[in-house]
Amino acid sequence: MAKPKFINNISGLQLFQLLRFVVFFIISIVFTKSHLTPAEIGSWEMFMFIASFMSFFWVTGIIQSLLSLYNRNRSFRRLGENISEKSPEIFNAFLLLLAFSLMFFLTGHALKYNFSVYGNTGSTPYLNLLLLYLFLSSPVCLIEYIYLLMNRPHRIFQYGIYTFLAQLLFIIVPILAGKDIIWAIYGLLLISLVRWVWLIMLLFRYSEFRISLDFMKEHLKLGWPLIITSLISGSAQYIDGIIVSAHFDDPGMFAIFRYGAKEFPVVMMLATGLSNAMLPQFGTRAKIRESLEVIKKKSRNLMHYLFPMAMLVLLFARWLYPRMFTPDFMRSADIFMIYIMLVIPRLLFPQTIIIGRKRTGVAMSAAIFELALNIPLSLWLVKDYGAVGVALATFAVYFMSKLYMAGYLWVKMKIKPGEYIPLMTFFIYSVLLTILFVLIDHRIIDIN
Predict the structure, then answer these.
(1) How far apart (Å, rounded) are the C-alpha atoms in residues 35 and 45?
(2) Residue 255 lies in a domain
(3) Are residues 223 and 270 in the same domain?
(4) Dihedral, CA of residue 310, residue 315, residue 320 and residue 321, to nearest 10
(5) How far, in Å, CA of 295 to CA of 232, rounded?
(6) Domain shared by 184 and 303, yes or no
(7) Residue 103: which residues within 8 A CB-CB, separation 6 or more?
(8) What are the two backbone dihedrals, phi and then psi, of residue 73, each rounded to the nearest 5 degrees?
(9) 143, HSE (Cβ side, Cα atoms, 13 Å)
(10) Are 210 and 91 a contacting pair, CB within 8 Å?
(11) pLDDT tens digit string along 396-425?
(12) What CA–CA distance (Å, rounded) separates 415 from 120?
């Protein structure tokens, strides 16, 4: 495959995430159009939900700390020394991922008879296969970041094309052939084995097989706060799922919630890309004013096309859902509409400045604030509004978390919101999107 000229490290990772979303989105559509019942689809969604819930935080923490330590650590080399092609950091990061995977695999087997889902009425679906998938899938998350560290972004895109296409085929072909949902899980395990082979090949090519306990200690010292922060800040969607599964003794209802509880992927990718790209710019005090102006300009540009895109999707959400899936998933559209509204807080970037200035304790306190508020608010709203109430709580606490960080910047660091937020642009688009949401929610505007 020729090297696409438009791909760099940021766009390569963004395209990889887009491919992941598209593939699972196609799988969702195929499942709803197939012979599978909502309960069987709910079992699949619960399988994927638990696997992600048990691994996302420590995988994120280990990967992020690797990116920070690569060629900038005391254990192997000092900044500025000659850098060899093969990296012992990558190999030791792999060993850490493998150790965590094994720990959660063994812990899961030890506790597998002591927990269940869907309140007290259902066992965890395909638990043995789930724990095997958790063990196999977590270390292979290193692959795209090996390519990133080796400055081969086109390889990230190629790897995504090949493996996600294979994953799509391995999962949907058995279902289209009339097989049970367990065959889709077998397909998921098969593509994980393929990725393991790919990972081993990359380790032989790019890593130096040298174990260093000193580096692992250094890695974990930096990684533990990131793991904890990821667990706290990223747990909202999983807590939402736990609340829904506990409140409704129905796997079909869980599937309805999961199909709706999806953010607009373009917003997430572009906002995250901008935030990550700007982090190094806030590392020095000398350039902070210039960097504030840059992030203000870049966020305004994002607003000019992400808000209109969100409005368009919001307008057609109730029309699209029963046609993309089935009429059984019509209620998912109401949940999805609320998740579209997350574009409002997503396009605020106080966290970028805070993390860039190495005030990670503030980011952690914001995450704790968000989690502490999300649980009681979700439990309160789910009683009157059902699964939609859980989505409403998610939007409210995420927006308040951004306000909390913006307030810190204003009070403690003397950085006013207008210095990094295009306030008028943000206000106009937010009001227009909110008005459109209210009109659609009350069926004053009804495209169906």
Answers:
(1) 16
(2) no
(3) no
(4) 80
(5) 26
(6) no
(7) none
(8) -135, 160
(9) 25
(10) yes
(11) 999 999 999 999 999 999 999 999 999 999
(12) 50
Give Cα separations from 6 to 3, 15, 165, 266, 422 (angstroms).
9, 11, 21, 17, 28
Tokens of 290: 């210039």
pLDDT at 38: 81
Q: For position 120, what pLDDT does the model report?
A: 47
Dihedral of alpha carbons 37, 38, 42, 45, sign: positive
Determine, yes or no, domain membership for 392.
yes
Residue 439 forms part of a structural domain: yes
Place of tokens 């906002």: 271
Task: Please tell me the distance from the alpha carbon of residue 55 to that of residue 51, in angstroms, as a whole number.
Answer: 7
Contact 342, 335 (CB under 8 A): no
Q: 412: buried, middle or exposed (CB in 10 Å: 19+, 13-18, 0-12)?
A: exposed
Written as one letter, the residue type at 401 is S
**Cβ pair 240, 378 in contact under 8 A:** yes
Of the candidates 67, 140, 64, the residue with the CA atom closest to the CA atom of residue 101? 140
| 397's tokens | 């606490």
119 within some domain: yes
Residue carrying the six token digits 């996302």:
56
pLDDT digits (tens, 9 = 90+) for 241-282: 788 877 776 667 777 887 788 888 788 877 876 776 665 566
Whose structure tokens read 């309805």? 256
353 — phi, psi (to 5°)? -65, -45
Domain ranges, residue 109: 1-234
Residue 207, SS3 per DSSP: strand
161/156 Cα distance (integer angstroms): 9
Structural contact between residues 339 and 264, judged by C-beta atoms closer than 8 angstroms: yes
Return d(Cα 22, Cα 168) in angstroms, integer.
10
The residue behind tokens 């096309």 is 305
What pTM value is reported for the model? 0.72
Q: Which residues of the chain have pLDDT under 50?
A: 78-83, 119-121
CA 405 to chain centre: 21
